[in-house]
Amino acid sequence: MEIRLVKATDADLLSAYHLKNAEHFRKWEPKHEADYYSAGQLKKRLSSFIVAQNEDRAAYFVAIDNGKVLAHCSLTNIIYGPLKGCHIGYGVAKSFEGTGLMTKVCQHAINYAFSKLALNRLMAAYMPFNSRSETLLKKLGFTQEGLARKYLQINGSWEDHVLTSLINPENA
C-alpha cells in the first residue's frame, strides 16, 4: 500500500472509489450533482486541486493498493500569516473501516502539514453522532474546542459539528 499526494491521472481511480462508497459517504458529505464523482468531473476538479497543491495551498492524500483507492485525507483552506493553519478532512472505504488505515493516512497528512508546510494548527470538525471520527481524532491527538451549531450543510441538512484542533508540537 502507498500513501501519496493525488496526481492529475488519478481521476478514474478516485471516481471508482467514490462511486463504490457513495452510500457510505452520503451521510457525511454535502449533497452533490449526480455526476460529481464521474471521472470527467473529477478530472476538471483535480486540475485546479493540483495547482493548489503545487502552490502549498492544499494537499490531497490517497492510500492506494493494487490500483484501488482505499482512503483519502485532505488539507484544505490553508492559511499562512499569523494563523498558519488549515482544515483536515478524510474518508475511508466502507470495507476498510476499523482497520487502522484511516489513522495511518491522517498521520501521514499531519506530518506533511507540520514538517513540509510548517503549519501551526490543524482543524477538524465532526458531527456529534460520528463516534468513529471522534475516536480517530482523539487517537491522533486532536483536542475538542466546542460545538458549532448548524455548522455545515451535510446531505441537505444543516448539522451541528464538534470542533477540534491539533497544534504543531514544536509550537505547543
UniProtKB/TrEMBL annotation:
The keyword rRNA-binding does not apply. Belongs to the acetyltransferase family. RimJ subfamily. Coiled coil: none annotated. Gene3D superfamilies: 3.40.630.30. GO terms for molecular function: protein-N-terminal-alanine acetyltransferase activity. Keywords: Acyltransferase, Transferase. InterPro entries: Acyl_CoA_acyltransferase (IPR016181), GNAT_dom (IPR000182), N-acetyltransferase (IPR051531). It comes from SAR86 cluster bacterium. This is N-acetyltransferase domain-containing protein. Residues 1-169 form the N-acetyltransferase domain. GO terms for cellular component: cytoplasm.
